Write the structure tokens for this entry.
Amino acid sequence: MMFTRFTAFVFTCVLVSVASAGAQTPKVDSLIAPATAKAKPAPLPPLPAGVTHVEWNQFIKTPVGDYGLELTDEIKALNGKKVRLLGYMVMRDEPTPGTLLLAPYQVGIEEHEAGFADLPPQTVYVTIPYNAPKIVPHTPRPLLLTGTLSVGQKVEDDGKFVSLFRLALDAPPVRRAKPVKPAAKPQAKPVKPAPKISAPKPKTKTR
Amino acid sequence: MRILAQAALAVAATVSVSAAALAAPTISRLTPPSRPTTGFGSTGAVIARFLPDQRFDLQATVSPDAGTTITAVRFFVDNVLVSEVTATTGANTSLVTTGLTAGLPTGTAVASFRAYVNNTPGVHVLRAVAVQSDSTTTIREGVFEIVNASAPLGRRARNTVIFIGDGMGIAHRTAARIMQNGVSQGKANAPLAMDTFPGVALIGTASLNSIVTDSSPGAACYSTGNKSNNNQHGVFPDDTPNNFDNPRMELMGEYMFRKFGKVNGIVTTSDIFDATPGSFGSHTSNRGAGSGIIDQYLDEQADRGLRVLLGGGRRWFLPAGTEFASGNGYNLLGSSRTTALDYTLPTDIQNGWGVPAGALDPNRDAISEFQAKGFTYATTATTLASATGDRLLGLFHTGNMNIALDKLAKRRNATVGNIGGKNPNTNAFVVDEYGFPNQPMLDEMTTKALETLNRNPQGFTLMVEAASIDKQAHNMDSERWMMDTIEFDKAIKVAQDFATRNPDTLVIITADHECAGVNIIGASTVSNEELLLRARETDAGTKVARLRDTVTGLYEGAGFPQYSIATDGYPASTDPNRKMLIGYAANADRSEDWLTNPMPLRDGQAILTTSVSGVFDYDDAPLSNYPANPSARDNGSANAGNQLGYFVTGQVAGPAAGNTSAAHTASDIPLSAFGRGASLFFGYMDNTDVYFRVMQAMIGGAR
């Protein structure tokens, strides 16, 4: 129920049709160029006030230096600010309830084999404002997410993922209640106990 | 004959004891592994072989009868008690009943005796006697062999360099030769460097649990002399889920340093935690446990002979830390270290092998710790070339290093020929978009490794891996694995020249397995311009006729494809007219247009600088034009450089079954040998034989 409402609000899925060009007869030099015309840019929904749209190439400086990755000044300046990101939900085999990972492209990982090693470094750890954390069903569709960005390296609470970027999603809007029939007796909705979420299995056991 | 006689004795002993008890514990696994000594599969051949004084663990998994417990396990070798292991013996033994693999019978115990050694050449009978709380016992026996590698056959090899072309079968080699040197009137215009090696053998590559190996046991056999299960290296399988408690066997580097003071090096183009480099410096049942593998290099190897470590994989050396970590004043972001992939060792391994306990420490700064141990740290081709000292750590990428083709495109600045290596959407070089524009070539890494290791007066062993021959064969990216094979051959030439100057050096060229069922099916019958035109046609209905039926030149239709060579020594173009065509027997679904792919497939460690705001389609990624997998390449999508090939149905599982890449095969792979001891390599050999021949060359000597 919660998820449905959440999905309707946050998971603005965008689908763009691909325009294709007809065959041409260019010279060899130009044959290295695109086989088909680039897709027509798809307009994203207008940005809400106070929100910055962030592209995936705005996260990390290149070339990489002698040690680790460096964040761009742009992304550091957005720490704590409202941002919007367009990306894909990482397909996980051991998802952490109440979270999803957002990547620049469709990607799946086998956490039980190699952890998060195959994810691009821009991958964003997204926390979802559930009252009781639930596992987010995977969707292959692109997601347009808005929330508050925080940057800097952190071992996440699940103890498994080392995030550089986090996005705390906005809470879903308060929906207007349907008009209550005057005759209906107001009743407290029974509180549904939170589903049991078993803790992720530890990878190693020390004998 | 001697083996058979001993095996017969062992069988007799087993029968007499088990008949004595109506109920008794069961020994479900005895390590080192043996073939059955009777019945189907009993050939008398020995599975586990070791050198005199090479350390390995003894282990038995024992399940008691209901209502009883296992109280002791006694290990005997040739009827002599090695140890009685109980819950309290401690030291280098353990009797573990918790943390075992799910599904084992109640009360199952794993008994271990760590770091056993035997100095007597020949076949030995290992017997485990399990005792349960009602005093009933059972016995299981197996055999292992101690191989004499000290026969005085000639001068000893002071140094050995083992080159592993990951996934390199015979066809990968042939294709590289055709591309690099050409063939005219039936004869190769020139051999590859590896073709000039006098010792030649065929190598069988099966692992302990499959005819088709992965890189872990495929490489570890050269480091240990033994078979391992797939995904495991430096260990035998066991009955616990712990990645780092399996029965160990001593690695070549460890043994040669302990016995002879020889140092060792690991050089690879992959992420340095990967299976092949990992097989030469770590012991684990999970090849993916990157944090633990890197930490074993540091904790166990750096003080015990490891002197050179070159490759990608910097992410495992950076501390996971907390927000805005900046140790040493440098930015250290981008770590992949996690507790789940780290390691600690049980006390019996620590005591037996004399190694540290390890720690679950994602915040470790391994670069600084290597530097504190005296390692010079290099990060680019430039800093590698100027590195000095006798210990060297080079980390040139956060993940896998880029492929030779893409590194070369940047070095040429696109002024020489066309080999791809650029993103047509952005006109940026691939290595720039990956964030590492100045990575060394493998021959440069090999040169520096040899220079560094050769400072040790007692000599060295060195493993050099060309990792992306395999990785690009998996991707069915023909020109990329061919260029990596050529890069590999240039590194081999460096070692061959070294061995010529230092005659007591053995150089081995081999592989861990074949990858993708690669073969050369012929050559294109059309010009490159015509191929490009046909690949651009969008009518899928005519693709097979236009790109396959009238393009694939077979037999005399193939002729002799010729590639011109640029001044840097590599092919100027990988798309000449009438180019060589490659087929794949272990292929996954793909679209084929025969053209060099301008970009490699996506890599998780690529730092994408490409941004085409708002341009994306449903099947592809926004802001990333790199194809996700072979099925997404040349499939006519809107990305520049993404032509429209004809669809080839894979023979291995496809995307619907969760697989998108070509697979390893069980084919034999070629081995070539040069220098001191090359005469020891001939005929058909099991991959574990290679280890013992190398050891014979280094310990006993060879002509």
User: Anything to note?
Assistant: Chain B touches chain A through 99 residues (CB under 8 Å). Residues 478-501 of chain B form the longest helix (24 residues). Chain B has three domains: 2-146, 159-240+251-401+439-517+664-699, 411-436+524-661. DSSP finds 17 helices and 32 strands in chain B.
